[in-house]
# Entry
Amino acid sequence: MNILVINAGSSSLKYQLIEIVNNKIVAKGTIERIGIEGSNLVHKPEGKDLVRIEQPMPDHKVAIKVMIAALMDKEHGVISSMDEINAVGHRVVHGAEYFSGSVIITDEVIAALEECSELAPLHNPANLMGIQACISIMPNVPMVGVFDTAFHQTMPKRAYLYGLSYEAYQEYRIRRYGFHGTSHKYIATRYAELIGKDIKNLKIITCHLGNGSSITAVDGGKSIDTTMGFTPLEGLVMGTRSGDIDPAIVPYLMDKMGMDLEQTIQYLNKECGVYGISGVSSDFRDLWVASIQGNERATTALEVFCYRIRKFIGGYAAAMGGVDAILFTAGIGENDPKIREMCIEGLEFIGARIDKEINDVKGKELRISAPDSTVDIWCVPTNEELAIARETYLLCK
Ligand code: AMP
# Structure
């Protein structure tokens, strides 16, 4: 059974065709500059050379047609007809309180997604464009929506309510939603599978550390708290996002820097985080190079990043009344041993110790805790596309 996984952005679209029974990626690719001059598709079929196709793609519908043509092409294709696409799984950023799990997309689901758009104006309308383009081209293929927010719908009220008036929640839906749910769920589930224990009996802290970063407390397989909030701007200090700040900073900054609201939001999302602190880069490889060369701001940025993580790990251990495992994933979590070490440093009091030698690993499923650590620490590479394909399979098989 072939499942097409689609992650549609406003001007870009990523896809993977996955043969789900064997967990095999048959082809994958990225379309960029949809609706902009210079539209192109980079397509990589399994076992064949990468191809780059340049042709005008004024909208998502044309982009999906070009993608399907690439998948069926005589030379670089991997299927011979559209009938070989059995289901499509769409990544959807925001499902608000409507969706606590993945769903088959119907007219009602689309209406609910439109309702959610004001909560994620940069993402949901783009996700919807991808969904509608696929429906019009493949009307008989089942479509599934997999939400970044769904896994966190199990959070109790005490974790998702802000200290605002209750009307802010009731009337304007202002609450913690949390994001990266597909990834947190995938690595927590995968870890339980790897150690052969029932996730229902485990208290896990999952650290998704990439360009966007978040941490989740997973108690008995359920998200009970997470660092991202109403939007993905809250929580950890990220590549270019500020994470938690005092809200009173916003008007003060606007006044001092002469920015309007839109510029301020842009600033908090794109010019802050480790990039803003270091003045060097949002990429941790560049930060390490600068730090080793004596750039103090780069060193400080790395320390701020890890300190915030350590605080949340401690906080979530308290929230769950203990912790059995701490998991690291995504670009930084999977590939930066030194950052993992710095995040765990000082957590000996909860029984967490890293084995520095074993920890010197990149992108592998591996236990990295010391033998005397009472908390299991692991590197578990995430695979959001596979997770979306599995969710889709479960609903369509
Ligand atoms: P992601 O958003 O999960 O794709 O993560 C992207 C980020 O991972 C990059 O911006 C880098 O900061 C980080 N990253 C990727 N590879 C490495 C590496 N080998 N060492 C350290 N950081 C890395």
